[in-house]
Amino acid sequence: MRPILMKGHERPLTFLKYNRDGDLLFSCAKDHTPTVWFADNGERLGTYRGHNGAVWCCDVSRDSTRLITGSADQSAKLWDVQSGTQLFTFNFDSPARAVDFSVGDKLCVMTTDPFMGLPSAIHVKRIAADPDDQIGESVLVLKGPQGRINRAVWGPLNRTIISAGEDAVIRIWDTETGKLLQENDKDVGHKKTITSLAKSTDASHFLTGSLDKSAKLWDSRSLTLIKTYVTERPVNAVAMSPLLNHVVLGGGQDASSVTTTDHRAGKFEAKFYDKILQEEIGGVKGHFGPINALAFNPDGKSFSSGGEDGYVRLHHFDPDYFKIPSI
Amino acid sequence: MAEVMSMEAIRTEAARLNIDLSGVDWNSICLPPGEDSGVRSDDDDLNEEDSLEFDAGFGNIIIVDNLPVVPREKFEKLEGVVRKIYSQIGVIKENGLWMPVDEDTGKTRGYCFIEYNTPQEAELAKEKTNGYKLDRAHIFAVNMFDEIDKFMKVPDEWAPPESRPYTPGENLQHWLTDEKGRDQFVIRAGSDTEVLWNDARQVKADPVYKRPFWTESFVQWSPLGTYLATVHRQGAAVWGGASTFNRLMRYAHPQVKLIDFSPGEKYLVTYSSHEPSNPRDTHRVVLNIFDVRTGKVMRDFKGSADEFAIGGTGGFTGVSWPVFKWGGGKEDKYFARMGKNVISVYDTESFGLIDKKSIKVENVTDFSWSPTDPIFAIFVPELGGGNQPARVSLFQIPSKVELRQKNLFSVSDCKMYWQSNGEYLAVKVDRYTKTKKSTYTGFELFRIKERDIPIEVFELDNKNDKVISFAWEPKGHRFAVIHGDNPRPDVSFYSVKGGKVSKLTTLKQKQANALFWSPTGRFIILAGLKGFNGQLEFYNVDELETMATAEHFMATDIEWDPTGRYVATSVTSVHEMENGFNIWSFNGKLLYRILKDHFFQFLWRPRPPSFLSPEKEEEIFKNLKKYSKKYDVQDQDISVLLSEQDREKRKQLKDDWERWVNEWKRYHEQEKIDRQMLRDGEASDVEEEYEAKEIEVEELLDVSEEVIQDA
């Protein structure tokens, strides 16, 4: 089907997130204003005004009532999804980047960038059931990795936190003690900055995308490398189909060198790979800048991509897509 | 071995010396020249060959003997004379002239040493002044300082050279005996050079031999595929053999830049140019012709770059390569070069000029040999503002007889295209229109093998069309022309059979700027390289139909394999991205692609010509069905095997995956209760637990009253 082009952001997209029911799509961009859309027809539902910098990441609670956003304005904000009102602001001394609700939505992990001599850090905050009781104190602060931490997510049963970033290392932390439990095997790991990380629905495995032009699939518990998907371009965004054994990689050449070549050389395609065979099975073109964000609808029947070009493209799969033979 | 310091020790040392280690760029650190910290390079050749040129360090000193013996009062004068002679040739180093004096008599000893800036200058000085007559009694004897040792060691008595017992070499043609009839190719990417089989049936490349830093600039196959030549600072080398690529011969030529094989690969021409130490002088050029098998220098040519730069446009530091063009087919009988107003033809028996004379041709600007016969064509442009017409002539060697000549008027440029069998010569002539403001193109066709060499003139349908590319069908009678104005030119095919040029067809508006005939003829690729982004059209000229169109984005090079079965298209490092190559079948089916960063070269290994007679070839062609049966069966077997392997691999992958998934499911089940607790007892974390309830909702939207009137 023809993709739905969603024009609402004025700056490059940074992150996309569906709610659990798959009827809402949240988008973050560098233009300070996270936006919520109807995931079916791409109609704009509303915006969340209040941030004063690029918004890097967001997450929505399981019951679709709370939205958390991390922004370059050195804050993370908790919003009421329905009304769009700010419920709470977590202030930091450096830009916030990744945010992720835990299972049960009682905790939230946030990362902050290295800034003015401050190292990067991972913070765990408690999210109060009643916003009036909300406090800004961290339950846990983890430090150690060099450079930016681009993504931090909860492992199975909130027992671990998985982080990845500029130093190309994936780390698993214990959420009880705050200890570093594991780092990935350097020989098989990424060689350059890890830009993105996507968990499977049951959190048993996750996919990382890196500027080293590959994406890798890992076991969340043992941090064993399971699959590697090789592409021709730096990978900025990854997503896994909840329905079929497909993974999608998005990226493209550096935004800085986009204008120097033919648009086809940029390879701004969302590339579909067979999750098991690691073979490319198709591509979806359309963006005229690198793809920065990808998300699958939880029903697996549509996905959306957000690009450096400022557009979100919402794709509902044709019936043919579901007939792609697997093995 | 040097002592290895631990990182800790380095840190303390650095702290002691007050060096900030974080500010040190480790890659920029290198050892002082000649210092290796006691770690010897593994490459013996490197050590050995380095000494050849650099170690002795006296290569730039010459000894001039047979000088007059003069008393002290005349010393200055003699020194002045010698200095004058030798400073004309190159820059003598400061204090570089030393004339020893006999202390007893106070007279000079009759010889002197001269030190130049470069060995090249010293060599030139030796060459030019050895035998120089200062006067009747004093004829200079000039030698290199380095050679003195050699002369001292000459034994007084002649000893017969030892004859070494014959050791059988490897079969250099071994690659032709491949059971699957595959072809080889060499690729150069990054620092690695690799030879591979093109295993098209298995749709992959099968590695043969790989070696990092095999060459310092490029590699080149010899024309019959026997040798792979590499280029190094010290000279060129050839490699070959049955299975591993062993070095077969070395050709010493310091700072060699370009190499060229004779068509029968008997000889190798190497070229280097040297920067003069006096910037006003021109570059000095050295050319060596080696016998490939023995490694012996058959002839060397030395001179200033100007002498070798005539005619050719562009090229390497003004020299158009190859300087020497080989004629007379695969026998390597003659080679020639163009000089100012002359064509110098040499034969390989004596390596001297034929009849000791060059052929005088005023103002010749271009010449080219027939690919098969000792005939060459020359082009002389118009002279005297059009008073003397331009002309194209054919010369026969060794008789130097002019076979045919054609005068041409108001010519702006001319280009010669030989058909690969030497049967036809097409000359593309650009002529000025009457106003001289623009040009139009015509062709002169020489039928070399016919009596009296008839010439035919033909023009394109629209003679104002610019000709972008021209190509003869190899061994055939057809040619293709890309003509018209950008961006979408036309492609026309002509046949010259039956004594007349006839047009076969014109394909309109093609995205093509280069033509690549299959080496066996019949098929051609119309390619749109560079600006056309790598558009490819595979065309069958027999049927006049397009077999396939494809694209290899940004393709820079296209090469057919020597059998005409496969084509390689490659993107070399002139583009930053997409580096690598694709292998296609002759009819445009993509077989496989390999991506390599920093991809420099792709070269098919050439094959020597077939031993089959034309009759035999025709017989095979007629009974192709019979012969091909065997191969069809093989193909079938392989494809069955492949799909079998593929199925197995997929099954394996699937099984592995299932194992992961099952493990995850198990964990997921185990943790179910914990998860529920985390979610305050809410159970529905799996899709199945959704319950579809139908709820009927009645909503009153609007109430309106309407009066219905009775009729």
From TrEMBL, chain A:
<feature type="repeat" description="WD">
    <location>
        <begin position="6"/>
        <end position="47"/>
    </location>
</feature>
<comment type="subunit">
    <text>Component of the eukaryotic translation initiation factor 3 (eIF-3) complex.</text>
</comment>
<protein>
    <recommendedName>
        <fullName>Eukaryotic translation initiation factor 3 subunit I</fullName>
    </recommendedName>
</protein>
<keyword id="KW-0677">Repeat</keyword>
<feature type="repeat" description="WD">
    <location>
        <begin position="284"/>
        <end position="314"/>
    </location>
</feature>
<dbReference type="GO" id="GO:0016282">
    <property type="term" value="C:eukaryotic 43S preinitiation complex"/>
</dbReference>
<feature type="repeat" description="WD">
    <location>
        <begin position="48"/>
        <end position="89"/>
    </location>
</feature>
<dbReference type="InterPro" id="IPR036322">
    <property type="entry name" value="WD40_repeat_dom_sf"/>
</dbReference>
<comment type="similarity">
    <text>Belongs to the eIF-3 subunit I family.</text>
</comment>
<dbReference type="InterPro" id="IPR001680">
    <property type="entry name" value="WD40_rpt"/>
</dbReference>
<feature type="repeat" description="WD">
    <location>
        <begin position="142"/>
        <end position="183"/>
    </location>
</feature>
<keyword id="KW-0648">Protein biosynthesis</keyword>
<feature type="repeat" description="WD">
    <location>
        <begin position="187"/>
        <end position="228"/>
    </location>
</feature>
<dbReference type="InterPro" id="IPR020472">
    <property type="entry name" value="WD40_PAC1"/>
</dbReference>
<dbReference type="InterPro" id="IPR027525">
    <property type="entry name" value="eIF3i"/>
</dbReference>
<comment type="similarity">
    <text>Belongs to the WD repeat STRAP family.</text>
</comment>
<dbReference type="GO" id="GO:0003743">
    <property type="term" value="F:translation initiation factor activity"/>
</dbReference>
<keyword id="KW-0963">Cytoplasm</keyword>
<keyword id="KW-0853">WD repeat</keyword>
<dbReference type="GO" id="GO:0003723">
    <property type="term" value="F:RNA binding"/>
</dbReference>
<dbReference type="InterPro" id="IPR015943">
    <property type="entry name" value="WD40/YVTN_repeat-like_dom_sf"/>
</dbReference>
<dbReference type="GO" id="GO:0001732">
    <property type="term" value="P:formation of cytoplasmic translation initiation complex"/>
</dbReference>
<dbReference type="GO" id="GO:0071541">
    <property type="term" value="C:eukaryotic translation initiation factor 3 complex, eIF3m"/>
</dbReference>
<dbReference type="GO" id="GO:0033290">
    <property type="term" value="C:eukaryotic 48S preinitiation complex"/>
</dbReference>
<dbReference type="InterPro" id="IPR019775">
    <property type="entry name" value="WD40_repeat_CS"/>
</dbReference>
<keyword id="KW-0396">Initiation factor</keyword>
<dbReference type="GO" id="GO:0002183">
    <property type="term" value="P:cytoplasmic translational initiation"/>
</dbReference>
<dbReference type="Pfam" id="PF24805">
    <property type="entry name" value="EIF3I"/>
</dbReference>
<comment type="function">
    <text>Component of the eukaryotic translation initiation factor 3 (eIF-3) complex, which is involved in protein synthesis of a specialized repertoire of mRNAs and, together with other initiation factors, stimulates binding of mRNA and methionyl-tRNAi to the 40S ribosome. The eIF-3 complex specifically targets and initiates translation of a subset of mRNAs involved in cell proliferation.</text>
</comment>
